Amino acid sequence: METKEQAKWYVLHTYSGYENMVKDSLEKLVENNSLEDYITDIQILTEQTIEEKNGKRKVVTRKLLPCYVFIKLIYTNHIWYMVTNTRGVTGFVGPGGRPLPLTDEEVRRM
Q1: How far apart are CA 48 and CA 64, in angstroms?
Q2: Chain segment 59-99, per-residue pLDDT in tens
Q3: pTM exceeding the 0.70 threshold for the entire prediction
Q4: If I label 18, which of 11, 69, 83, 96 is the partner at 20 to 30 A Cα–Cα?
């Protein structure tokens, strides 16, 4: 079996506004199918900003990259099938819909 050190970050493309639903669905998929050894982390990049509306200031959480979910996994055809068939996921970011892992430098920048 492969180890968690071999897991790499990939990017999933989702429908607009479905990012949180996709993250929740993937977390349930991992839990229900005991995939903790293959899918180790799921993230949506967000930032906190202060918005002023009608003279009131409010802290708002915004998505840095809407329509994208970051997932750390060990890639297999079975995992690809399960992830891409999750409701709201349009596919992996990469040539021909096949996943292309992020480089260590790209991960550090985020």
Answers
A1: 10
A2: 988 999 999 999 999 999 999 999 999 999 999 999 887 78
A3: yes
A4: 96
Q: For the CA atoms of the chain, what is the radius of gyration?
A: 16
Residues near 56 by Cβ (< 8 Å), separated by ≥ 6? Answer: none
Report the candidate in 89, 109, 87, 110 with the shortest Cα–Cα distance to residue 99.
Answer: 89
Instruction: Give the pLDDT score at 3.
Output: 55
Give me 36's structure tokens.
């903790």
Residue 29 burial (C-beta neighbours within 10 Å; 0-12, 13-18, 19+)? middle
